[in-house]
Prior knowledge:
Blueprint: H1 2-9, H2 23-38, E1 51-59, E2 65-72, E3 75-77, H3 87-102, E4 115-118, H4 119-127, E5 130-137, E6 142-152, E7 161-163, E8 166-168, E9 174-176, E10 179-182, H5 218-226, H6 231-240, H7 246-256
Parallel strand pairs: 3-7, 4-10
Antiparallel strand pairs: 1-2, 1-6, 5-6, 8-9
Amino acid sequence: PHMFKNLVCKGHPDFSTKHQQDAQEFFLHFITILQRNCRLTGPDPSECFKFQVEDRFVCQGSGKVKVSHRTEYCLPLPIPTEAAENIAEVAEWQRRRDEAEASGIRLDPNDEVRLKLRLSHCLEALAKEEIVEQFFSTALNAKTTAKKTTRLATFPDYLLLHLKKFTMREDWTPIKLDVAVDMPDTVDLSPLRGQGLREGEEPLPDLQGDPPPVQLNMDAVRALTDMGFPVESAKKAVYFTQNQGLEPATNWIMEHIGDSDFADPFVPPGLNKSSSQVFTPNEEAV
């Protein structure tokens, strides 16, 4: 293990240390190392994790559709705590714990009751339709709203799931959700299969000319970067919360901190290049 770690993590500012690290970030770093060293020697073992995510936007002003694809190596899943099957039991245990602590008594940590969810709850949350504000419609040449759904255009040999367990306390301190997610032996992923541009649908046209200027509250952006968040993530948070201030932007950050494109360059929704006309799924992967 030590030789493997020294080889893979050599020169990395975080992974080369003995500090505690994030497993998902290490996995993506490992994928990068594999790709870098297989360019000339091949084959690339990371290909068994590779798949295409389909982001589908339906412009509410024109009814036209934009479909884009991005390459991923692990699938982030939200944790819908409101779908937990034992919310009442957890609330009762927390009440007893608070009463005990007020009396100077500490309950046995082994008796703690944690929220319990099924993996299907997380998959349903991923597939749930999302309303995107400030979507720039190239059909209207103006901002509007759009309905967004996320699906898988291709499926890998091995699908790595990343449970997004981080959230924010009321004092903006990041914490990890203490939940138990039941993992079944088999999973039906057919509801996540992407369909691309469907028959009878009209695609949104490509952007003509320069994109419209984006107005951002730079004080909020700077405050988020001072807290340690990437500048591109800060821009997204301020944009999608419509410049409403630091608190809404921070909440957005914590809701999306596990997204695979969290620190990718900020592109306003609707202005990213559509790939519906050029992407052809691999039939074997599908």
